[in-house]
Amino acid sequence: MRFIVRVVINAFAIWVVTLIPDLQVRVTPFAPGETLQLVLTLLLVAAIFALVNTVIGTLVKIIAFPLYILTLGLISLIINGFLLWLTAWVTSWFGFGLTVGDFWWGVLAALIIAVINGIFGIILRPQRQRRRD
Question: Which residue ranges of the chain lie beneath pLDDT 70?
Answer without folding.
Answer: 127-133
